[in-house]
Design brief:
This protein is an alpha/beta fold. It folds into two domains: about 210 residues, D-Maltodextrin-Binding Protein, domain 2, CATH 3.40.190.10; about 190 residues, D-Maltodextrin-Binding Protein, domain 2 (3-Layer(aba) Sandwich), CATH 3.40.190. About 40% of the residues lie in helices and about 15% in strands. The chain is built from 19 helices and 14 strands. Strands 2-1-3-13-6 form a five-stranded mixed sheet. Strand 8 and strand 9 form a beta hairpin. The longest helix has 16 residues.
């Protein structure tokens, strides 16, 4: 299974991140043209023709040539050209191409990082009736909507859940925690059953840690952004930082490791006994253990323990958007419509283990027969989209750095929350 979160790879430079939608607006196109090209007129059913230029990041898109064979057969006069770009370079190259007026017809985006592109001068509005918004996980659809206008269509989905060593839990006589208060005792019980540490915690201290704490802030009743203003210096953020730090202060987790790439080997060896992570690990642990069937015998999953306001997680994955100056928008939208069909999403899952963004596709036996995915389905139904503003990635990165200070005991949670708030206010939202 793929690893969509792209830790350490997809890092926008500060300058590019600050460009945002406002800096890209009008580059290579006039305002009048952009307005005319964001019409949400319905797309017909006649076969697509011409050439379709598709850009995507390497990974889940690697199998698209195989997945779209039925689409190509149904559209014989259409030539589909794929440009697959390494994750580390994808957004920077896409931003540069858009700014130069040389972007593709259609591009892949990541819902947790796409805010700077959600603008009518960059992307066309999703045509009326192209897809049913209610067919997708709600927060994934909402991640592409700004001002009531949808700009992207979900393609695959992921979120975080708790992945733990079921054999050690059985040995310790404990069940998966369902609340924050149960989390550290559960982790300590796993240690008592033989694990080096109960949790293989994320120690990148970067944007991904910031996303984790944002998730915990939601669980504590926080909002992150409200009425166009940052709401980070709140009791909910303080509680989230303290909850995250409790993993380390209890010594259920270690501030020095494992690193992200070491997480699975540590988990398999018993150096750690749980991870708060995405569904891609389920398909990778047998390989890490070098033993087929290891995962089924040693691993279980559960939704995230609930904070005072529930067990909410974040929505992430992949989406598609059609560029405002696309030369073949008709074919692009027909391509998107095809990829949004449940049968196509199942084909994508079978080819690359990309989990469907369409809820009904999870009823297919190919997925429904995978019990370790049940917790992710439960969690995907209770997710939120990160703030859809261009500066969120920078704010989340600062939040990750503050998280490190709290976890290591060099800063109070209250001071860290205040620091993040001040930083966020200095940046603003980047929204028009």
């Amino acid at each position: 299974m793929s690893h969509p979160s792209r830790r350490g790879a997809l890092k926008l430079t500060a300058g590019l991140a600050l460009l945002g939608a406002s800096a890209l607006t009008g580059c290579g196109r006039g305002t009048e043209t952009a307005s005319a090209k964001t019409s949400a007129a319905p797309i017909g059913t006649a076969p697509a023709t011409g050439t379709l230029d598709v850009w995507a990041a390497q990974g889940d898109a690697d199998v698209l040539t195989q997945v779209i064979k039925p689409f190509k057969a149904a559209n014989p006069k259409l030539t589909v050209k794929f440009t697959l770009i390494p994750n580390a370079e994808y957004y920077t190259k896409l931003q540069s191409a858009i700014a130069a007026g040389k972007g593709p017809d259609i591009a892949q985006f990541f819902p947790e990082e796409q805010a700077q592109f959600l603008d009518p001068s960059i992307l066309r509005a999703v045509p009326d009736g192209l897809v049913d918004p209610d067919s997708f996980f709600k927060s994934l659809w909402e991640a592409g909507v700004v001002g009531g206008v949808p700009y992207t269509v979900p393609w695959y989905a992921y979120t975080y859940a708790l992945v733990y060593r079921s054999d050690l839990a059985r040995k310790a006589g404990v069940k998966a925690p369902t609340t924050w208060d149960q989390m550290v005792p559960f982790l300590k019980a796993l240690q008592g059953a033989g694990a080096g540490h109960g949790l293989g915690a994320d120690i990148g201290w970067d944007v991904f840690n910031g996303q984790d704490v944002a998730m915990y802030a939601w669980q504590a009743g926080g909002s992150l952004l409200s009425g166009g203003k940052w709401t980070l210096d709140t009791p909910a953020t303080v509680d989230a930082l303290k909850y995250n730090a409790s993993f380390f202060t209890s010594r259920a987790a270690d501030t020095s490791g494992p690193t992200f790439l070491d997480a699975q080997p540590y988990f398999v060896s018993g150096k750690t006994a749980s991870m708060i992570t995405g569904p891609w690990v389920i398909g990778q642990l047998d390989t890490a253990a070098k033993k087929k069937g290891w995962t089924a015998a040693h691993v279980a999953t559960a939704p995230l323990p609930a904070g005072p306001s529930g067990s909410v997680s974040f929505s992430a994955g992949g989406t598609w958007g059609v560029l405002a100056d696309a030369g073949n928008a008709d074919a692009a939208w027909k391509f998107v419509r095809y990829l949004a069909r449940p049968a196509t999403q199942i084909a994508q899952y079978q080819a690359y283990s990309s989990l469907p963004a369409v809820v009904s596709a999870w009823d297919d036996p190919a997925i429904k027969g995978q019990p370790l995915l049940d917790a992710f389905l439960t969690q995907l139904k209770n997710t939120r989209a990160f703030p859809q503003v261009p500066t969120w990635q920078q704010v989340a990165t600062r939040l990750g750095k503050e998280t490190e200070a709290v976890a290591k005991g060099t800063r109070s949670a209250a001071k860290a929350a205040a620091n993040v708030q001040a930083y966020a206010e200095s940046l603003g939202t980047g929204a028009k």
